[in-house]
Structure formats: C-alpha cells, structure tokens
Amino acid sequence: MKKNLLFYFLPILFLISCIKHEIIPAPSKTVELTSSFKGSIGGTDIKWLQNVDDYNCIPSQIKNLNTIGGGQSSVVFISTISSTSVKGQISVRLGTVNWTQYDTPTNEIFTKFLDGVKSKNPTYSREGKFGFEVKYIDNLGVEWVSDSASAFPQNVTFTNLSYDSEIKNDKTLDYCKFTVTFNCHLFYYDKVKQHKDSIEVQNAVFKGWFMRQQLIP
C-alpha cells in the first residue's frame, strides 16, 4: 500500500516543482492630471472642464537649442486647453528658461524657474519670451493675444504649484501642475485693414500643467 501511494505521490511532487511562478511587474507610477478654465472673455462667461466636450490640456514648448561651443539653449513652456470636437481654446505661455548642455533643462532648473515665478508674479511678454502671454481662439477661429504694451490694467498670479513624475514607455516624465489667475485685454490685429480690436478677460482661472520634456507625437 505504501509503495502504491509513493507511486502516485512522486509524480505530483514533480509536477508542482515544475510549475513556474508568474512574476507580476510592479505597477508603473502615473500622475493624476486635471485641467479646467473659467472666466469672462469679451463679456461671455466660459467654462471648460477636462473630458467634457472633449476638452483636455496639452503641454508643449518653443525650444531653441544651442549646443555649439557651450552656448545657451532656451525654452518657453506652453499649456493649452482645447477640444477635438468644439471650437474655442486658450493657452498660456511662460518663459524663458535658459541652460547650457543637454537638449532639455534639468529637473532642478525646471523647478527653480517655476518656483521663482510663484514667488514673483511674471510680467506680460510677447510670445512669453520674458514672462507671460495669453492666446485665445474664439469659436470663429479668430486669434486674440495679450500685449505687453497694453494700456489696460493687467495682472497674473501663479498658485498651487506642485511637481510630480511618472514613467511612460520606460521614460520618466516630469510635470508642474499649476493654477494661474489673470485679468487682461486681448488684441486682434487685422493686417489688411490696419485695425486693432480688443476684448477684455476678467477673473480668468486656468488650471493645467507644464512639462519639462518636449512631447513628440
């Protein structure tokens, strides 16, 4: 009887020893990102929320690389809230960050620059090269842009800055989430008629994020 039990028991042990344990990889770290815009533009109250009417935040950059002879490179960070199905979008630009070497500023340079913006509100600047710029595209596709030389009162304040990172496709992506509030006038310039119109932006609150790296589609 014992011999028969041993005869059945040994193959079972052999099968158990041959079973490979499944290795479950550790979950990749992801960042929770939310965006929204609300404010009055040209007397119309606007409210755009992430994932409502396909609105979302898209970070981008205007980068000028100069790696010859240790020259300085520069970048202006852009955050755009837009929809794939509805007309109308708004973006904010902030710059400029300067650095040497590499093709991207280090995380230390990235955070130091934005911390400085939080502690001292930026001024309005053309294309955001030396500060802050707002661009708004209305539902007719007309682009309106802030002007550093505007005679109207304008202000901007960055708050709620927080930094986070995640891993996507084996790459680490660094984010700065923020809220920026501003009041200003935006201008449309018709080159044919040599005429300049303006609309007022009141109590604008833009919630989005900048990225240290340039996303390549």
Walk me through the topology.
Blueprint: H1 2-18, E1 36-41, E2 44-49, E3 55-64, E4 72-83, E5 89-100, H2 107-119, E6 132-137, E7 143-146, E8 155-168, E9 171-190, E10 195-211
Antiparallel strand pairs: 1-2, 1-10, 3-4, 4-5, 5-6, 6-7, 7-9, 8-9, 9-10
In sequence order, what are the helices and strands, one letter per element? Answer: HEEEEEHEEEEE
Query: How far do the termini sit from each other?
Result: 70 Å
Helix/strand/pairing class, anyone? Answer: mainly beta
Largest sheet: 10 strands, antiparallel
Please state the CA-atom Rg, rounded to the nearest Å: 26 Å
Number of helices: 2
> Stretches where pLDDT falls below 50 for ≥5 residues?
5-10
- Overall form: globular
Fraction in beta strands: over 45%
Q: What is the number of strand segments?
A: 10
The level of helicity is 10-25%
Mean pLDDT: 86
